[in-house]
Structures are given as C-alpha cells and as structure tokens.
Design brief:
There is one protein chain. The chain has a domain of 240 residues: Aspartate Aminotransferase, domain 2 (3-Layer(aba) Sandwich). 35% of the residues lie in helices and 17% in strands. The chain has 15 helices and 17 strands. A seven-stranded mixed beta sheet has the order 4-12-11-10-7-5-6, sandwiched between helices. It starts with a helix and ends with a helix. The structure holds pyridoxal-5'-phosphate. The site of pyridoxal-5'-phosphate has 15 residues, from helix 4.
C-alpha cells in the first residue's frame, strides 16, 4: 500500500511531510515502512522523553483498556485520583489542584481562563518568540506572526515583551494584568533559556501587581531540562503550571496545575472537557510520571545533555552561530537555514529531528538514548555542516579526538523505572 500518497492526498495539508512513512518505534528508535531504522532525536516533538513504548506505560494502557476506558469528570475515578496524587507529589506547595486536558494548547486555554476568573482582570503579558499553542486563546499569546495573522481578531489585550528583558517586563505588568505567561526555556522560539533574573523578576512583579505567574512547561517539564521541572533551576514557583507532551508517556495528555486559592475562584461548570481525565490517559500519565520521578530521570537528562552539548560545541564550522540549551533540550543555531541539514541528517545518517524557527536545529532526545548515540549524532551534525571538509566517522571505531569520548556507563533506565509503575 502506498501510505505516503494516501496520506498526502487526504491530509489537511497544514504540515510539510517527510517522504518516508514511520511504522514502528522502540526506545530511541523508529523504523520506516522499508525497514530503515532511525535514531529519533525529536521523539514526538518532546512527547517521548521516556522513548517509544516505555514498558510501564504500555502495560498501564493495556490493563486500563481492559478495565474502563471512558468516564467523564462528573464521576469520580480511582485512576484520576491516583494520577492527581502522583503528579501533585512531584510538585511544590501550593500547586495542588489539577485540570486534566488532552493536549498542551488546552492546558494553556485553561490557564488563561482560570487566570481571568481568579483575578477578574483581562490583560496577558507574554514574550516575543513565545509559543503556547494554536487555539484562539493560546494563539493570542503566541508571538509568531505567521501563526497569528490569518486568524485575527484574537483574544485581547496581550502585550508582548522581549524575552529576558527585565525592564520591559516590569513596565508591562500593571494593575490590569491577569497573568504573565512564560516558557522557562523557549522551545519553538529557538531553544532559548530564560535568565534567572528574568524569571525571578516575573515572580516578584506579578506578586506586587496582583497578577498571576503562569509557567508553560509543556516542553520543559518532567525531567527534560535536568530538573523535574525547569522552574527548579530558577527557584521560582508559578501560580499556574501547564504540562503536556511527555506527561502521558506517549498517550495524549496535558494538565493545568494551580493552587487552592485560584481553583476555588473558578465557578463550577465554567470550564470542562469531555475526554479530559479519562481513565486511559490517567493510567498512562500515572505510569509516565512515576517512571520519571522514581527513576530520577532528570539526573540522567542533565548528564547526557552536558555530554551532547559539549560535543556539539566542539564542532568547528563557520555555519554555527551558537549551541545552547538545558539538559536534553538542545538547539544549534546556524547562520543559515537549518532545513537542508536536517534533511541530510535524516537521509544520510538516519537521524530524525526538526527545526525551531528557520535557523535552529532542535534536539529533544529521549532519556533512554546513550552517550555513544549522542556522540554519534554530534559527529553526524559535524559531517552535514562540513560537507566537503574533514570526514567524520559517525559511530565508527576511528573516532575523532576532538569530540569528548564516553566517560561513564549510564545504565538504561527502563528496568529500574518499571518498578512501582502500574
Ligand atoms: C511551550 C509549549 N506550549 C504549548 C504547546 C502546544 O501544545 P500542543 O501542541 O500539545 O497543543 C507547545 C507545543 O509545541 C509548546 O511547546
């Protein structure tokens, strides 16, 4: 069957497509219909922090599918209670109340609505280069013009300030501001970490002005950046936290998490979701959160991310402007478009990843990847960037001396994290 032609013929067309069809995945790898194996360093655009088909998540979904798959939130559920308890145990006080969703954009929508209901104010302050989703509310606080322009009018008022500009932030937050919403590391906007001063100022100014601080950790949360939550790097606890991507271990699941005080100000029945909090998603989410939490997988992410970034920084190429990131969230900013190099990584080296903005090669490797695989990927990046120059031996024996070599054996986390996850 020519799946590629069929998909292209009937697809809405909003995405550019690969010209191969992926049919299977396991751990850090996926396979195409022709049996080619790819190292998947984007893993569902950050969904697969645990890699494909984590055994504890697969087991939890199977077991729950045979027990109860559907239950609206008006009926209490053992699986939902278990998910809430598991998630809240990983979070600092006062983040104790959860609104479960089916995607990231819905978690952001909930954050905006809870913020308005709780403060009685209308204005949102967001950052330039932000990305918070594509529904009307989340799109309204997303910076990129191309995503916004065709759909105006959007939710107003929204003021965008330059990311990491403390002065602009302090000026923008006023008595009318319901919330400031920020990503601790901008993902789609080019893998840009916040400065500590910026997030700390956001915490202080929102408190002073009676506004809320929303941190969007849909891409950064649950181990990715080398901490369970990226806000831990900054010593800042938000009033509202949004999570999604890795939260369901591959199953579609998001959540907005907030405080008693804020949740209690949302009128009953003023918000909801038919599928939100269904037992299948809750079982998957509990298994995924436990796998990260009990396996302390952020520690592995921090170590592997440091090795990968060091290797990428060792690449000598005039095309590279900067290598930056936090943990296993890594960007290589080029002085030119990234797309041709990503295509060559896929075609010649069987390594999958995508861009973040036109010039940034973005890597969101799963935590089950090995040091050797990351060093091999760095060599492949060097090779595609240095076409016609020095030959790099990707994953082979004749390793170049300029790349750091694996220093320690990092055990595969899967067997450990299986314990306790149901
Ligand atoms: C920081 C952030 N917020 C929100 C979203 C939207 O999530 P979803 O695509 O699940 O709706 C994304 C997706 O890339 C994201 O990275």
């Amino acid at each position: 069957m020519d799946w590629l032609s069929i998909e292209k013929r009937h697809d809405s067309g909003v995405y550019a497509k690969s010209d191969f069809v992926i049919v299977r995945g396991e751990g850090a790898y996926v396979w195409d219909a022709e049996g080619n194996r790819y190292l998947d360093l984007i893993n569902g655009i950050g969904v697969g922090f645990l890699g494909h088909r984590h055994p504890a998540v697969v087991e939890a979904i199977k077991k729950q599918a045979e027990t109860l798959a559907v239950l609206p939130q008006v009926f209490a559920s053992d699986r939902r209670a278990e998910f809430y308890k598991t998630l809240v145990e990983t979070l600092p006080e006062p983040l104790t109340r959860v609104f479960p969703t089916n995607s990231g954009t819905e978690a952001v929508e909930a954050a905006l609505k809870f913020a308005r209901a709780a403060t009685g104010k209308k204005k949102f302050v967001a950052a330039m280069r932000s990305f918070h989703g594509r529904s009307f509310g989340s799109l309204s606080i997303t910076w990129e013009k191309k995503y916004r322009e065709p759909f105006k009018p959007l939710v107003e008022p929204v003021e965008f300030i330059p990311y990491n500009d403390v002065e602009a932030l302090e000026k923008a937050v006023d008595g009318e501001t319901a919330a400031v919403i920020l990503e601790p590391v901008q993902g789609e906007g080019g893998v840009r970490p916040a400065t500590p001063e910026f997030l700390q100022a956001a915490r202080e100014v929102t408190r002073e002005k009676g506004a809320l601080l929303v941190l969007d950790e849909i891409q950064t949360g649950l181990g990715r950046t080398g901490r369970m939550y990226a806000f831990e790097h900054y010593g800042v606890v938000p009033d509202i936290l949004t999570l999604a991507k890795p939260l369901g271990g591959g199953f579609p699941l998001g959540s907005m998490v907030t405080t008693d005080e804020i949740a209690d100000r949302m009128p009953k029945g003023a918000h909801g979701s038919t599928f939100g909090g269904n037992p299948l998603a809750m079982a998957a989410g509990t298994a995924a959160v436990r796998a990260v939490w009990e396996g302390r997988l952020w520690e592995r992410a921090e170590r592997l991310g440091a090795v990968f970034m060091e290797a990428l920084r060792a690449i000598e190429s005039k095309k590279v402007r900067e290598v930056r990131g936090l943990g296993l969230m890594v960007g290589v900013e080029l002085k030119e478009k990234a797309a041709p190099y990503l295509k060559r990584l896929a075609e010649e080296h069987k390594i999958l990843t995508i861009q973040a903005g036109p010039n940034v090669m973005r890597f969101l490797p799963p935590v089950v990847v090995t040091e050797e695989e990351l060093l091999g990927a760095a060599r492949a990046v060097a090779e595609v960037l240095n076409e016609g120059g020095r030959k790099w031996d990707v994953g082979g024996k004749k390793k170049t001396t300029r790349f750091p070599q694996p220093t320690s054996h990092i055990p595969h986390p899967t067997s450990h994290t299986l314990k306790g996850a149901s």
